[in-house]
From TrEMBL:
GO molecular function: metal ion binding; oxidoreductase activity
Keyword Membrane: no
Family note: Belongs to the iron/ascorbate-dependent oxidoreductase family.
Protein name: Fe2OG dioxygenase domain-containing protein
Keywords on record: Iron, Metal-binding, Oxidoreductase
Organism: Saccharomycopsis crataegensis
Residue ranges annotated for the Fe2OG dioxygenase domain, each copy included: 170-300
Record flagged with keyword Oxidoreductase: yes
Amino acid sequence: MSVDSKKIRKVPKIDLSNFDSRRDEIKEQLWNAATTHGFFCLVNQQFPSKSDILEIFQLSESFFKLSPEQKNKTPHIKLKNTGYEFKAQIRPSSTTKLPENKESLQMQLHRYDENWPNEEALGYEDWKKKVSSFILKVQELSMMILDIFSEKLGFEKEFLRRCHDIHADTAQSTLRFLHYFEKSLDVEGETAINSIISDDESKTTNWRCAPHTDFDVMTLLFCKEGDKGFEYCPGRESFNDFGYGDEWSSISPQTGEIVINIGDMLMSWSDDKLKSNFHRVRYVDDSMADRFSIAWFNQANTDVSIQGPDKRYEPVTGKEFIERAMKRNFDRLNGIVN
Ligand SMILES: O=C(O)CCC(=O)C(=O)O
Ligand SMILES: [Fe+2]
């Protein structure tokens, strides 16, 4: 498929205004979107508000402006899914196996005193408090949605909420600040980008973020207005490896809107009723400038047992689920086929 022949799909937009009085209507819309597209956009949510979202982008940029030395004081700890990494992530779908041209910072609320940036260096008053307050808002919004999925799946209403306790030592949910570099800044990546832009997408290397599904339960993604390059294949419509050759659609949300995708953990937990999906971020011709995005990955606590009401899959703990997903990625990167 050529780069220009994107399928235009209408991403479901779900209006959350007057949530309490409209909850039944919203419930049906969320269920519909999650069981078909697996991908939808929230608008008019009470929190995090547009100003909360604008502020969190400022907080993220203030971190990325620090010197490499300062940023490296919060090192990436893989097993704890926290900290700062620079051009480190290689996704199995990347044909070049070059690290993605980006830096990122991951934070978990329960590790607030363990591996978060140093506030003095940031020179931004209450940076950590403000990031935590954003996490609490994005967590509550996520739980409002998971309560609905709990009910629809036939679990007790707050069942999924209880499985996502971000204050416990067993928490796994993570906030990730992402900064993709301007194309011209990456010499190695640029060579690859210029050398292989192919109609055969499996040979294309011009990804900011190569095709993948998320391991988690549900991801809330914040983008900046006018941002281009985010593409998705809805509802596991994709039947082949990483969605290559499938019909991809692009989405450019407005600031304040929240893009949601269902992850593999919830797909499995719902006996495949809710659809995880492939997504990717490409360099688009007129948008080579740097790009910032923010993702909130909802992941069940390590000690939770994950199994759908129909018991389609064997039970697995939150910890095992993530470990297996990471191992699958590792094996694919190393050419091991399971
Ligand atoms: O940066 C983006 O817009 C998407 C990031 C993403 O999909 C991920 O980190 O899993
Ligand atoms: Fe993702």
